[in-house]
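Entry for the shared binder. Reason: the reviewer on the internal report wants the predicted structure included alongside the sequence.
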Amino acid sequence: MTNDDRDRKLDAEELDDPLGVGPGIGRLVPCLWFFALDWLYSRCWGSLFASLPGLVLGGIPLVLLVLGRQTPVQERVDQYQAVAQAALARGDRAAAEVYFRRLAALRDGSLPTRYGSALAAFLQGDEARARSMMRSLAPEHTGGYADAHLWLAKDLFRQQPRLTPQTATVLEHHLRQALAGNRNDEEAASLLGVVLWFRGDAHGALPLLERTARQSPEWQLPLAVLYQARGDSAAAQQAAKQASAHFRTAAEFDPAAWQARVSWAQSEAVMKNFAEAERILQAGLAKENSEPLHQALAGVYLAWCALTSAQTPEGLATRLELLNRALLHAPQHPHVLTLLADLSSWDDAGADMAQTALHEALASGTAPATVHLVLGTRALRQGDWERAQTHLELACERAPDMPIVLNNLAWALAQRDPPELDRACELALAAKKLSDHPEISDTLGMILARQGKYRAAITELETALRAFPNRLSIHRQLAELYDQLDHAELAEAHRRRARAAGADAK
């Protein structure tokens, strides 16, 4: 075949297959085209138009489903956050954890999500991780997420209900940051009021507590105490009256709620209704032998004692009776021990009157154990060991479980001539089982040193030294003990401290 023949054949094929898809396909395409036209012209389009609304309605769910699968990430984050917060609010820890994990999977590092994750960790029992996460949100020295600051403050209150200056500083920072983020947070305001009150800032604490008490009547009690400390008796009485009514209702509604009963009694004590406060707490103890009720009752007796004059024999006798009641309920109460120490160290001007009053109390046959305790302790201070032992033995017979009685009797036995070191040691150990007061460690350490138990003595004396860092007698005794153990450097260090303490005393 010549080239011209070949070209004429290709031209013929191109005419038969203008789309260039092959001879078979080329014939099929026109057929399909004419079939489609015939189908369109032969349809009954009136029926189709009649069913169009149904088709539209039926397609809506499909469209929504497709769109739902294309929901923006931020919308899903908002949905998960709402569900997670709702789960936290109702206490559903597992559900909250699930949704916070989903938020983490979406790489949502927002502050609310991180805070919620920390809450979920805490609810699941992982407290260390929760606190670590909260601290990353709310540092102790700079501002952070307000909710995390408040959480850390409340957590610190839970861990250390007794404030220290260091704790109060941290709490004030967290609570001020919480209020900076939410000025209407009544809980943060009330806690900050308590912290400022503790730090001696009554001017700053008062408006915060007043603001909180208007919304929460339970805060009328600390407000009443603050008014009382400022010398505003009328305002204190009014606030205490409102607090008493509130806590009385709560205690009568739930007799087992000892916190409400204690606050009720404290409100009455602020109003100087001490007999009523005593009745309230004794009624609670009749139902349940609760340690907080005992401590509260001791506090009532101490407040009552503080307002009872000791300038007359009758007043002094009343104070001793109140202190005795306080000791029976709270033998380790530090304020009770302080008052007893004050009573046993009268100056010359009041000594004769006090001595006469105590002797009259003993002669009446109704004197409490504290009378013998005070007389015995006064004799100890004067170095009259035998008279001290006599009174303290009598006190111990009446109150064998009072740590202060056991401690003081142990000291008297160790100092008399000849000393009764074995019995003294037994009494001091018994006192230590009842109380961890540092005076007991001092007494026990001195006795152990005289028994030749040097290492045990050092342990007790160093315990006492933490409470009494400038006590001359402890430094001298530790210097002697370290000499016995050939620790010359430590012995000399305590001698230097002893000389400094002696110079300060002069």
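Summary line for the report: The longest helix spans residues 233-253.
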